[in-house]
Fold this sequence. Notes:
Helix content is about 85%, strand content about 0%. The chain has helices at about 15-45, 50-60, 60-75, 80-85, 90-125, 130-145, 150-160, 165-190, 195-220, 235-270, 275-310, 315-340, 340-350, 355-365, 375-385, 390-415, 420-440, 445-455. Helix 10 (about 235-270) packs antiparallel against helix 11 and helix 13 crosses helix 14 (about 355-365). The longest helix has about 35 residues, at about 275-310.
Amino acid sequence: xxxxxxxxxxxxxxxxxxxxxxxxxxxxxxxxxxxxxxxxxxxxxxxxxxxxxxxxxxxxxxxxxxxxxxxxxxxxxxxxxxxxxxxxxxxxxxxxxxxxxxxxxxxxxxxxxxxxxxxxxxxxxxxxxxxxxxxxxxxxxxxxxxxxxxxxxxxxxxxxxxxxxxxxxxxxxxxxxxxxxxxxxxxxxxxxxxxxxxxxxxxxxxxxxxxxxxxxxxxxxxxxxxxxxxxxxxxxxxxxxxxxxxxxxxxxxxxxxxxxxxxxxxxxxxxxxxxxxxxxxxxxxxxxxxxxxxxxxxxxxxxxxxxxxxxxxxxxxxxxxxxxxxxxxxxxxxxxxxxxxxxxxxxxxxxxxxxxxxxxxxxxxxxxxxxxxxxxxxxxxxxxxxxxxxxxxxxxxxxxxxxxxxxxxxxxxxxxxxxxxxxxxxxxxxxxxxxxxxxxxxxxxxxxxxxxxxxxx
Length: 457
């Protein structure tokens, strides 16, 4: 059954290959979203004191984001290289790339877990915790860190399943863990009365289940290129290439971490715990609307990389154009939905009237210019899919580190107050997204067009 679901990236319309990949990946990411935000939904409706608990969980976001940064560096950094080699018919090297990626994920997960336990208290206070909110943040993080190796294995290695043409199996990898999490959350939080600790424990168990599923498939016989022990020896050149290409993902996620730290600490200074909670809600709503565009991007990358490796440049060009068209249309629609129905989205994560009173205007401000994110992701994913690490890294740094963080610190200080923190995001979307897309069009896209012309001569 799994074999029949395999997708051949070299045949049929490119848009169909992308959609075939994107639909199950979007479903998987939808469930992954539930996996990630269901804790916040339950915690935000726990009753008295829930706003502070939600704020506490929000303070752990930078730590979780940093873990994801290393995951994407060693996981997503290897997948395009794997796909390019597979497209070129070099299955042996593709297998070694996957094996090196797995070992890098394991090593980094152990190091991050140890460092997290040693420094979690000073880290949380540096990230904007108060004495009151630290109680909840500490309880959540101490348990969540146990699952670091599981979460990194699941997310980092699942890309190798989809890259081999099994998007349905990749979808199941996420769904299985998410369903476990959704079932266990209310039991641990409400029935057993564990609160935020129960939410973290449910996450760890569900991550472990997903990791077992992913590794079970990759080590099995149904995959095209299995994960083998003999390929789990670090090779300097392969590890270097994975890290180099994955650095753009790392920087993108890592700068997200610094943005969250800058936002939380600045909001704590100018508005207190309530505005840190509002930012938690804003980020959670943003995760909802990022789902389809992430699905399209994730579905297109192996298709584009495979055809680039096979030197079918027209299919590469078609994939890039499809990404841009679909992403732009969707993000424009998402932007309108937030502007028209802000209370609906806010109430998903909190029923606190005071938080909503201050938070609705902040939510609409935060999403202003969301459509430009489609340009950012179209350009960024193209650079990465074609192995252009230099541009991918630069534009990761530009939008977050060079634009968002300075604005987050500067705007509140020059008179915008807490509004300045929420305003920094849309400004970066417009400037960073436009610059990334135009550069992609003038560089790699133009080269692809020239390749097509030369082939036709």
